[in-house]
Amino acid sequence: METINKSNQSTRQEQLNRAASVLKRKFVGLDAVIDDVMTAISGWYHYPNYQSSPCIVNLWGLTGTGKSALVRELISQLKIEHKMLHFDMSDGPVLSVEIDDAKLHTNAPVIIVDEVQHARTINERGYDVRYINGDLWQLLDTGVFSFNTDRSEAHNLLHYVHHLESLLPHIRVEDGLVVREKLMFIEEVDDREWVEANEYGDDKPAPFISKKWDGYLRDQFPRQFVTKH
C-alpha cells in the first residue's frame, strides 16, 4: 500500500490555505461557502490515490452569483487547469463526446458540470425525455465515463425505443401512423439523430417508426420482415 508523505501533505495544506485566502479577498461575503468548499475537497486534494468514488461538491444559487467563477479561480490558484473538464448543460443536456482524453486520464481530474438543472429526465408535459443523462449519472456515481465516444446506432436505437414507449399512452397509432396527438408526437421525436431531415410535417403522415430506424432494422434483421416496405 502507498504510504502517505507527510511533507507533501503539509505542502498541499499550505496551497489550500493560500487559495482560500485569495478566494476570500476576491469573493467578498462568501467566506463560509469557501470554507465549506475547502473542507469538502481536502481529502481529495491531499490523497487523490485513495479516492474510491468521486468527490462531489454542489454549489447552488441564482445565476450570476459567482459559483462558476469561484470554482475556476480555485482551480487556477491550485494550478490544476490541466486537469479540468467543463460541461455546460444549458448548451444541451448531454455530456459532449468531444472529450479531452489527456485531461480525463490525469490523476484526479476536475470535472465541472455547469447549469445542472438542465440535465432533466422529464419534460414540461411530464413525459420522459430521451435517455441522454445516463452518462452524467454514471459519471457522478463512479467517476468514470461509461460510453464509447463513437456511440453506436444500436445505442441510439435503444434510447429511441424507450422514448417511443413513454409516448404510447398519450397517442394513437393505426397502420404504423400516428393518428392522435400527431403534432405533440412530432415535436417529441423530431430529432436529427432519430429521423431523416424534413421527414415530419403538418401535411405529411407521421410514421410511428421513423424511416431512418425502419431502414436500420430491415438492414440488420432482413429475415424478420416479409416485405420491403
Descriptive notes:
The protein has 229 residues and is mainly α. Helices cover 41% and strands 7% of the residues. The chain contains eight helices and four strands. It has helices at residues 6-26, 31-46, 67-77, 101-104, 134-142, 153-167, 182-189, 211-220, and strands at 84-88, 110-114, 172-174, 177-180. A two-stranded parallel ribbon has the order 1-2. It has a two-stranded antiparallel sheet with strand order 3-4. It is elongated, with a radius of gyration of 24 Å. The mean pLDDT is 79.
Q: What's the SSE blueprint?
A:
Blueprint: H1 6-26, H2 31-46, H3 67-77, E1 84-88, H4 101-104, E2 110-114, H5 134-142, H6 153-167, E3 172-174, E4 177-180, H7 182-189, H8 211-220
Parallel strand pairs: 1-2
Antiparallel strand pairs: 3-4
Helix pairs in contact: 1-2, 1-3
At a glance:
This protein has eight helices and four strands, in the order αααβαβααββαα. The chain is mainly alpha-helical. It is elongated and about 75 Å long.
Attribute tags:
mainly alpha; two-stranded antiparallel ribbon; 8 helices; 41% helix; elongated
Helix content: 40-55%
Strand content: 5-15%
SSE order, as H and E? HHHEHEHHEEHH
Oligomer: single chain
Number of helix segments? 8
Task: Note the overall shape.
Answer: elongated
Average pLDDT over all residues: 79
Distance between the termini: 63 Å
Uncertain parts: none
Summing up helix and strand content along with how strands pair, one would put the structural category as mainly alpha
The strands making up the biggest β-sheet line up spatially as 1-2
Number of strands: 4
The biggest beta sheet reads:
2 strands, parallel
Whole-number radius of gyration? 24 Å
